């Protein structure tokens, strides 16, 4: 076997390792609008995606107590699972969503969040089934289409993923989270310029959140523009956290000369 294919594999593996988490975060937003803004959920003083490990642990404890009081409450259960996922406790998040889904078997938002938890635990085929069962052909949900696209990307099927994203954009034009997912789809295939174009468009849309900005910072950093990436990231998270993120990215890209191989690809 020639050396050329193996030289291309390392960057793709690197991109996958860096970006799967970002796609997972995009999935996390699929059931977050409207349903999760009830008075039964303890209020947080900052967005989950900007919390550090200690803050996420504290948030999980707080929301966990509310969940213990009423595990049938779909809103609390979904929020609890989301916090657990952000804190790296994917298996526990899945267990929570399994219970919530048992108590709310026809709730589309619950099925979508259950699919997200399955994806976070690496059970992608089951996640896809849950998302598709939540969808209805007569009233398609753009958030579910976008979530389905993210799962197809993780399954290595970018063509189907992008078809789902574009259907979602037909229903919700210029939606930042869809554009972000579409951009990350191109990152996974090594097309960083196209990815940056979609993500730059995404952060200009009303309602674009920190996750979208951090995805753009990631893509800019992957192209070696580390100072610019740090500036983008620090617009919404602390300068210390942004610097730590970029330092980590630099370290990943220097492993086994991955940065030069990424440029070659």
TrEMBL record:
It comes from the Bacteria. SMART domains: TPR. The keyword rRNA processing does not apply. TPR repeats lie at residues 142-175. SUPFAM superfamilies: TPR-like. Pfam families: TPR_16. PROSITE patterns: PROKAR_LIPOPROTEIN, TPR. The keyword Cell wall biogenesis/degradation does not apply. This is Tetratricopeptide repeat protein.
